[in-house]
């Protein structure tokens, strides 16, 4: 019932503008359950311009709405894990161009997310590491799994050591988890 005024208003506006409409609303079924309906329609008008009849279809989209809601919740959980992970996370395309980075990675490197997006591995590792980038990308492409310790260069030029785990994700991009181990290595030494 709370959706009914908006449905009527949309049909009235669409009729005045002589256009088709697509309206999504909830409906109450006899068993008390609520279902989502997608209604598509159009008016047919008389020669004098008055609305004679309405034709259209109604489709129960309840399952789709539940799936969309679950997907949004999943995306929210993923985004929270991504942003609050204690390790740095980088997502790169297959050419090693960064398309996303979490806050931990930004702090590790001293860049903002906007500054990191578009950079490549060669921009954030030491010169000695650059020859290893190609083989690392090839290894991930071949086995979907890669682990190695790398030397990274921060925006301010300082260097730190980090363990890198890299894998291919379903969309074809690469996901790298970076754990700084500089202090652990110093302590071990």
Question: What would you say about this model in short?
Answer:
The protein is α+β, with helices and mostly antiparallel strands. The protein has helices at residues 4-16, 62-84, 103-109, 113-116, 121-124, 133-143, 182-188, and strands spanning 21-28, 34-45, 51-60, 88-92, 98-101, 146-153, 159-168, 174-180. A 5-stranded antiparallel beta sheet has the order 5-4-8-7-6, with helices on both faces. The chain has a 3-stranded antiparallel beta sheet with strand order 1-2-3, sandwiched between helices.
Descriptive overview:
- It contains seven helices and eight strands.
- With 189 residues, it is an alpha+beta fold.
- The strands form two sheets. A five-stranded antiparallel beta sheet has the order 5-4-8-7-6, with helices on both faces.
- β1 (21-28) and β2 (34-45) form a beta hairpin.
- The longest helix is centred in the middle third of the chain and has 23 residues, at 62-84.
Shape: elongated
Share of helix among residues?
A: 25-40%
The separation of the N and C termini measures: 71 Å
Mean pLDDT across residues: 90
As residue ranges, the low-confidence spans are none
Gyration radius, in Å:
27 Å
Question: Which structural class should the secondary elements be placed in?
Answer: alpha+beta
Strand adjacency order, main sheet? 5-4-8-7-6
Number of helices: 7
The helix/strand series, from N terminus to C terminus, equals HEEEHEEHHHHEEEH
Q: Can you summarize the main beta sheet? A: 5 strands, antiparallel
How many extended strands?
8
Range of strand content: 25-35%
